[in-house]
Amino acid sequence: MPRPDRKIKPVHRHLWLVEPLEREPTLLVRPMFGGRAVYVHGRLVLYLTAKAEPWRGVLVPMERDQHAALQRDFPALAPHPVLPKWLYLPEAADRFEADAARLVTLIRARDPRIGIVPPAAKRRRPRRDFNP
């Protein structure tokens, strides 16, 4: 029986996109800014978000010089209005589910256009107490 003092976290509405990647041993899904960051082979390949527009859909992290090539294959993709370095597939797009599933297929095939290597995490220096 669930404890009354614990909140049950709702399942993210776009996690179905991760299912085809579950056999990938390098798959990592982490919470990030209220959404889910999806990593494969050490690359950030998708950001799943389910808030209000423009944060309701799938963001595709990628280098800007690759935008045009992917947009030819996915006309509904556009630079995100807040993070224009990444492409955005809004949930409201007519072919959202089909296009999102095709993006996952490209990720499984290791399409080099999709994904970025995240910057290394900064190491924190140990705090030194001031002793006069």
The profile of the biggest β sheet is: 6 strands, antiparallel
Round the mean pLDDT to the nearest integer and report it: 87
- Broad structural category: alpha+beta
Counted beta strands: 6
Query: From the coordinates shown, what is the CATH architecture?
Result: Alpha-Beta Complex
Q: Helical proportion?
A: 10-25%
Count of the separate structural domains: 1
CATH class membership: Alpha Beta
Work out the strand percent.
15-25%
Distance between the termini: 55 Å
> CATH topology, anyone?
Aspartate Aminotransferase, domain 1
User: Spans with pLDDT under 50 lasting ≥5 residues?
Assistant: none
Rg is: 18 Å
Strand arrangement, major sheet: 1-2-3-4-6-5
What is the number of helical segments per DSSP (H or I, 4+ residues)? Answer: 2
What is the H-and-E element order?
A: EEEEHEEH
Give the overall shape, derived from the CA principal axes: globular
Characterise this structure.
The protein is of the alpha+beta class and 132 residues long. It has one domain (15-108): Alpha-Beta Complex (Aspartate Aminotransferase, domain 1). Helices cover 15% and strands 23% of the residues. It has 2 helices and 6 strands. It has helices spanning 67-73, 96-108, and strands at 28-32, 35-40, 43-50, 56-60, 78-79, 87-90. It has a 6-stranded antiparallel beta sheet with strand order 1-2-3-4-6-5, covered by helices on one side. A hairpin with a 2-residue loop joins β1 (28-32) and β2. The radius of gyration is 18 Å and the shape is globular.
